[in-house]
Structure formats: C-alpha cells, structure tokens
UniProtKB/TrEMBL annotation:
Molecular function, one GO term: transmembrane transporter activity
Domain Major facilitator superfamily (MFS) profile: from-to ranges: 38-418
Membrane topology summary: Multi-pass membrane protein
Any one cellular-component term (Gene Ontology): plasma membrane
PROSITE patterns hit by this protein: MFS
High-level lineage: Archaea, Methanobacteriati, Methanobacteriota, Stenosarchaea group, Halobacteria
Protein name per UniProt: Sugar phosphate permease
Compartments reported by the entry: Cell membrane
InterPro entries to which the protein is assigned, alphabetical: MFS (IPR011701), MFS_dom (IPR020846), MFS_Efflux_Transporters (IPR050189), MFS_trans_sf (IPR036259)
Length: 418
C-alpha cells in the first residue's frame, strides 16, 4: 500500500503530465492551418526588437565609462529609450490599421537597425541620446501591429497565442544581453550593439515575405478617423475595467523598467559581480520569464485575468531578499524567481485588447500602450537619481511594495469582461 508521500508525488506527477499534454495540444492547435509559421515570424521579430532594447542595461556600465554618465544620467538615457518606445506605440497602431501589419512590422525593424548602426558610430553623449530615442521609437512601432495580427489569426486562442509570442522577447532578452555583455568585455561595447544589426535585416526580410499584405483586414472606423471614431475611442477608454487594467499596467511596467534598467548595474556595483556574471544572471531572469508568459496566457484563457496576479506575487519576497543576499548561487535562485514579475503583462494586455471593439482595436490599444509606457518611462531616471544618493536597496524594496499593491488591486478587475 502506498504511503502518503508517494501518493502526493504521484498526484503531482499526474497533474504535471496533464499540463504538458494540454500545453502540447494548445501548441498543435496554434500551428494548424498554416498559422504556425506566421506566429513564429512575428514572435521572432518581437524577440529580436525587445532583446536588442534590453542590451542597453547590460552595457550601461560601459556607456557610463565611455560617456562619463552618472547613475542619474544613465537613468535619463533609459528613460529616453523607454519613453520613445512608448511614443512609437500609437503611430504603430494607426499604421497597423491603415497600411497593414506587414509594412508596419518591416518598417519597425528597418528604423531600429539604422538607429542601432549609428549608435555604434556615435561619439558624443547628445548624439547617443538622440539615436537612442530613434531606436526606441523604431522598436515601439512593432508592438501594436503584432497584437492586431495575432488577434485575427487566433480569435479562439488569443490569450495562449499572445502568451507564446510574449515568451519570444524573454528568449531574446535571455540570449542577446549576455552575448552583448561577453562581446563588449572582449572587444568593446560597440560590438555589443553591432552584432544585432544583421539580425534585424534578416527578420525584416522574413516578415516581408511571409506575412500577408494586411492581416487584420479593413477597419473603416480608423481609415476615416472621423469625429465618430474619436467619440468611440473616448467612450471605450473611459470604461472602469479599461481604466483599472491600464493602471495595473502602468504600475507593473514602471516596476519592470526600473528593475531591468538597473539590475545588471546593481549586481556589479553593489554585489561586486563581474559584468559577464551579471549578464548571465540577467539572462536567467528573462529565461524564467519566458516560461511565465505562456502560463499566464493559459491561466487567463481558463480562469480569467485575476488569477494571473497570484503568479506576480512571487516576485515580492524575491525583491526583498535581493537586498540582503550576497551569495551568487542564491542570486541565481532569486533571478529565476523574479521571472514571475512580468506575469501580469500577457493577461492584462489580452484583457485590454478583448475589451476594445475591433473597429478601434489597434488605435485604442496603441493609445493605451503609449500612455502606459510613457508614464512607466519615468521610473528609470527616478530610480537612478535615488541610487546616486545611496538608496539602491530602498528602491528595490519600493518596487516590491508596488507589486504587492498591484496584486491587491487586481482582485477588483471585473470578471465579466474576460
């Protein structure tokens, strides 16, 4: 007769196998009817643009040394990057509605690659800031178009499809920043950026040749952009579920941008780790996040948006522990556990997109994401200014407190909108 421990182990194993089987079935469905290659192409571009953007935090110590930036100045550079990324969202959404996803996504990759090329060639701080702004704007153009394309490709499994593609940037961020850190340490920070440029051009060609000219079809309301369109947008964006979900996104993105912007610098300057080791820990964080996104999407599809915030709650004790732990192996565990921090993104974005009518989906969500990331972009410069005044640890504790407030507020999201 089996003892209690054995029965619990077998029960847990059975549940895990059932989860794997269900997840495998979901992936098979996503690949049906020839949609798998389109999803892969969109995800690859999203992974590349986001991964390349996250090279900045890893190379921040090198940029500070080359350009004489303080932590406040470094925070300002990240704020410029994130703010222009936010500003790119709205025109990206409008372009997706008017000229189609293929042209919009390809344009994004083209602008980003050119900006990154000139970042490598820049020689002064003002030029670096301007080119960083152009790069952030180019990356921002990508965000909304991939949402609207996937919404049309997967009307019945939207949350899961978004979860899978949201894993792509985490893979990109798990791979590209560590590679950039190693390359920068070996041959110079310019090469840490430069190796990504050919990848942008390759993915641009793949997207142009694989996506249909206009994935999402006609959207007459935005094509005319009449006073009626503005009335619909104003009405939809003021609905309480949209307002609350947007507030949660603002809080979450503010935490995420401050954390990712300074985590490698914190590890090198406060924990005494080398730049390559800090880059690896940074990559582990994103690697863990890659598993969280599909999980969050699946939970959203089955249980609703509220339940996904329970996953985010795991990051609260991890951020608190980060301020006191010194052992590198414990930092490995904390970095992996912090992968739950972004568990809110997939579910809340899916929630917002599904709340908006299809006639203003791209433009409406573009407005929301522009607002979300523009407000969230202020967090790096605030964090950097506090760190310059020796409040590094206290800022991470503040981030933990904000996440806790998010988890509590999420319980008030209306279920009926899911």
């Amino acid at each position: 007769m089996l003892n209690t421990g054995t029965r619990r182990y077998l029960s847990a194993s059975t549940l895990f196998l059932r989860y794997l089987s269900a997840f495998g079935s979901e992936l098979k469905h996503l690949g049906s009817d020839g949609r798998g290659s389109l999803l892969l192409a969109i995800g690859a571009g999203w992974g590349l643009t986001t991964g390349a953007r996250t090279i900045y935090p890893v190379l921040l110590p090198h940029l500070r040394a080359s350009y004489g930036l303080t932590l406040t100045g470094a925070g300002a550079l990240l704020t410029v990057l994130f703010a222009t990324y936010a500003l790119g969202q709205l025109p990206g959404g409008i372009l997706a509605d008017r000229i189609g996803e293929r042209k919009t996504l390809t344009l994004s990759l083209g602008v980003s690659s050119v900006a990154l090329l000139f970042v490598v060639l820049s020689r002064s701080s003002p030029v670096l800031f301007v080119l960083t702004a152009l790069f952030g704007f180019g990356v921002g153009l990508y965000a909304i178009a991939r949402f609207t394309a996937i919404a049309t490709l997967y009307p019945e499994r939207y949350g899961t499809a978004i979860g899978v593609t949201n894993a792509a940037p985490e893979v990109g961020q798990a791979v590209l920043p560590p590679v950039a850190g190693v390359v920068a340490a070996a041959v110079g920070w310019q090469f840490g950026f430069g190796f990504a440029i050919p990848l942008f051009l390759i993915i641009a060609v793949v997207l142009w040749t694989s996506l249909p000219a206009h994935t999402a079809g006609e959207r007459g309301a935005v094509d005319t952009f009449s006073s009626e369109t503005l009335r619909v947008l104003r009405s939809e964006l003021r609905k309480p579920p949209v307002v609350l979900a947007t507030l949660l996104m603002i809080l979450g993105i503010s935490v995420w941008q401050a954390f990712t912007g300074f985590y490698p610098t914190y590890l090198t300057e406060e924990k005494g780790l080398s730049s390559p080791v800090a880059s690896v820990l940074f990559g582990l964080y994103f690697g863990a996040t890659a598993f969280v996104h599909p999980l969050s999407g699946a939970i959203y599809d089955r249980l609703g948006v509220r339940f996904t915030y329970a996953v985010v709650g795991l990051s609260v004790p991890a951020l608190v522990a980060l301020t006191v732990v010194e052992n590198v192996w414990l930092l490995v565990v904390i970095s992996i556990l912090l992968g739950t921090l972004l568990g809110f993104e997939t579910s809340t974005e899916s929630y917002l997109v599904r709340t908006l009518p299809s006639s203003v989906e791209g433009t409406g969500f573009g407005i929301l994401r522009t607002t979300i990331f523009a407000v969230g972009a202020t967090s790096p410069i605030v964090f950097g200014a506090a760190a310059d005044r020796d409040f590094f640890d206290e800022m991470f504790l503040l981030l933990a407190a904000i996440l806790f407030v998010m988890v509590v507020l999420a319980t008030r999201l209306p279920v009926a909108t899911d």
